[in-house]
Amino acid sequence: MFAHDENLTIPGELLKALRHHAPASVLVVGIGSPQAGDSIGWHLADLIFQQELPGVVVRRALVPLDLMDWIEDFSVIHLIDAMQGPPGEPAIRCWHWPDGADLVSSATTSHGFDLISVLKLASALGRATSSIFLWGVKNGVRSRFP
Amino acid sequence: MAREIQVPILTRVEGEGALRIKLDNREVLDVQLSIYEPPRLFESLLRGRQLEEAPDITARICGICPVAYQITAVEALERALEITTSPEIQSLRRLLYCGEWIESHVLHIHLLHAPDFFGCASGIELAQQFPDEVNRGLRMKKAGNRLLEILGGRAIHPINVAVGGFYRAPDLQQLTNLIPEFETCLQLAIDTARWISSLEYPDFINPHDFASLIDPREYPITRGQIATSDGLNIGMREYEQHFAEFQVPHSTALHSYRTSGGGQQVYFVGPLARLAQNHAQLSPASQRLVAELDWPVVSHNPQHSIMARALEVVTAFEDALQLLQCYQPIQQIRKSYRARAGEGCWATEAPRGLIYHHYRIDDEGRIVSAKIVPPTSQNQAQIEQDLRALLPSLLDLPDLQIARQCEQLVRAYDPCISCSTHFLKVNIERA
Questions:
Q1: Distances (CA, A) of B187 to B127, B320, B323, B395
Q2: Measured between beta carbons, which residues in chain A are less than 8 angstroms from residue B142?
Q3: Residue B322: CB partners within 8 Å, gap ≥ 6?
Q4: Which of A125, B168, B247, B429 has the largest CB neighbor count within 10 A?
Q5: Is the pLDDT of residue B187 over 90?
């Protein structure tokens, strides 16, 4: 665990989706780093790991390309990443890939491979066969669940 | 007519930088490889820290080649402490480094550099045309990452490298389980080298002064002498007598030059330099490939770097296999030591080329000073010189094509800008 808002909890929508998909082979990937707002993906992945949900494997990814190593091994994949957006827009958004393919990464990423590029690469290679959900979470989000 | 050509963002490189080219009729006025990524000040950050923190802090310089920073740091600090690690520890470090060469080279070959040879704008476009080849590359990358996870604790920013050895010994069964996949990947790497050798290469050639480690015992990764193609052959402690870094106005990264002959001479580090100076030490499968393909192991065409990487991937898999097959649990995984004042330096071969570290520590084991010279910093002046040599042949082309070909030349070096700021937009001005 790393320094972050200790009051952060798993968004109820995400937890509900995880329970809905079990016992299928489910992978949850927190994407980010230990730094500030970028840590939200890792932090939520850690919280989900602590839930010990049956059939759910939880991993951290520092760079989205990590996903290519795991994408074929699971039937359902939930990807959690920090999201930016203007005030008033939803704090949590979910896209069922290929919805979200037009999302734009605002950050400079390793060798230009942001999460959307990696998912497009996986699709081009015929490897994005699982059901993939993208969860964008704004920093500081609170949940009333579970 | 004067003109300035800009490529706002150089793509498929690690980090942020720009390229600015000024032309006047048929004369190249200026070429500036500008790195505007802020300095990260790692050397200052290390001062006052305990020496044990150095491998984990320096690993943060790069997410692609953290092992290069870790191994170079611990080897330099061990010289400062005057301790020697066992051959078994040395072998494990080489094995870990092989994992990094594999994942870094395979990523660059398939997703960053190869698209240029097929007119593809991205690795995604290449994957649509060559799915089998790209999938093959990703399988090899996965194998490299798995090795890093087992030996380093995790694939990115590993946490198991320690001054004196490793924090924990790897599990014998986990390493043994890698052997079948590494045997398969060795054949995949050989197939990849054959594919890469068949690419149509631009015929641009510019004489280079290669600099790399050389080692008659093995293809150099973690040890050796520092040698250049004009005959310099020195121990690591002599590095700073022959190489120095200089500030340039247009870049936040230092430029490194050879200074031994007086003045500032550019030099070339990386796979092409390593291959030119160490082809006799390639692994047996790589040597058979060189013979089969009649490949020019001493080449001054920067675009041949992709083939040098492909041959090095074969060597890395073959070396790793041998190390995996020979591995026996190590009794003393970390050599003990007492803090003492001292000074030490070391150089290794990061995937992108020679990397040099120099530390001074006090009698309580705190770092007094640190000097880190990454490969991209050493190649920046060489990249500018190559662009100056290439540009006269491109002057009749539209600005967009000039920019694209310059960008491709830069990508052949696989620059790691984030490392060197410790670098790209292209801007061409025609006067």
A1: 21, 14, 17, 43
A2: 68-69
A3: none
A4: A125
A5: yes
